[in-house]
Write a structure and sequence with these properties.
With about 350 residues, the protein is an alpha/beta fold. About 35% of the residues lie in helices and about 20% in strands. The protein contains 13 helices and 18 strands. Strands 4-5-9-10-11-13-14-18 form an eight-stranded mixed sheet.
């Protein structure tokens, strides 16, 4: 899986670095002074690197916890995110990461203790804050490498007034099934209709496997969320989303869901240009898209039509109190876990 590991000299002796490297004894190890030497180099091809990404182990300097964008949340006025990793195992063609980063390598920050200190600093001022871990990566997709959930769930268990969201498409939920569910954790699954997922969500588990994973988690007692963002247009989108909702809500108890969110497809203009350069033949990027106020999205009329239809369909299954449309955002309310 991992053939090359770049390691910042500052974290070469970190226990987590040694633990991760021990899982890949055959991987070539390359020292570097700072991860930017590898991750931020010019003239890199995200598309080519995605075929065989390397793992970069580094230390996160500066702020480890950031305020979430406006409109990003599931009920709290105090929303923050933290990214233990940049980039994702999956290769979803609509993901903003491929337009934001020059590199497709998995950049993993091993200094979890600094993230936890940053979270505690936020909690000192905002004891009931919500924290999102799947903004720049998928929270669970590389759990076997990072041990992220195994490390942070006990941390949040000891801070019951806070809430943490693990946003994911991963069907590998064994680590969660083996521990007691947290009342203050939400495992949030991202969905597009099966036909769209098959065409655009490369390497991600199919919709059916995600639903199966959610069934197991709900039976175990985990609080679950559903994330329908970004909404993707197709001439048959109405029937596609109807079928998706039937597939999900026939299997899950909607009364036990924590939250459901809905958001439009939006990208900063610069991200979109980078994505078109990397994937010039991608039909999604040649779709009925327009640039509005520095963002590329569907035209306002089509966007509102889609959100209204899908929102109304969702209300057939869920209570209004757990529905959180994500519509007013400065750039994109889509985390990578979407």
């Amino acid at each position: 899986m991992i053939e090359r590991i770049y390691i910042e000299r500052e974290v070469e002796d970190h226990p987590r670095t040694k633990e991760i490297c021990g899982r890949f004894p055959k991987a070539v190890r390359i020292s570097c002074e700072r991860y930017g030497e590898v991750f931020n180099r010019k003239a890199q091809s995200f598309r080519l690197q995605k075929r065989q990404p390397a793992l970069v182990l580094a230390k996160k300097h500066g702020a480890t916890v950031l305020a979430a964008p406006a409109g990003y949340g599931i009920g709290s006025q105090e929303n923050f995110y933290f990214s233990h990793m940049l980039n994702c195992l999956y290769d979803c063609r609509y993901c903003f990461l491929q337009g934001m980063f020059r590199s497709a390598h998995y950049l993993h920050f091993v200094n979890y203790e600094d993230f936890q200190s940053g979270i505690d600093e936020v909690l000192a001022a905002s004891p009931r804050a919500h924290f999102f871990s799947g903004y720049d990566c998928d929270s669970l997709a590389l759990e076997q490498v990072t041990g992220f959930a195994c490390e942070f769930l006990p941390f949040f268990r000891a801070r019951p007034q806070a809430l943490v969201e693990l946003r994911t498409k991963s069907a590998a939920v064994k680590p969660l099934l083996e521990v007691e569910p947290l009342a203050n954790a939400v495992v949030a699954y991202s969905f597009t209709p099966a036909e769209i997922a098959e065409a655009l969500e490369h390497k991600a588990p199919p919709v059916e496997r995600r639903i199966q994973a959610m069934e197991k988690l709900q039976a175990r007692g985990w609080r679950l969320g559903l994330r329908f963002d970004p909404v993707i247009y197709h001439p048959s989108y109405q029937e596609q989303y109807r079928q998706l909702f039937r597939s999900i809500f026939e299997r899950l108890d909607s009364h036990r869901l924590h939250s459901v969110s809905l958001g439009p497809f939006r990208l900063p203009d610069s991200f979109f240009r980078n994505m078109v350069r990397e994937f010039p033949d991608e039909a999604l990027l040649a779709g009925p898209l327009v640039s509005r106020q520095g963002r590329v999205s569907y035209g306002e009329e089509l966007e509102q039509e889609m959100l209204a239809f899908i929102g109304d369909e969702l209300r057939n299954y869920i209570d209004e109190g757990i529905f959180f449309p994500c519509v007013e955002v400065p750039a994109s309310c889509q985390g990578a876990g979407t």
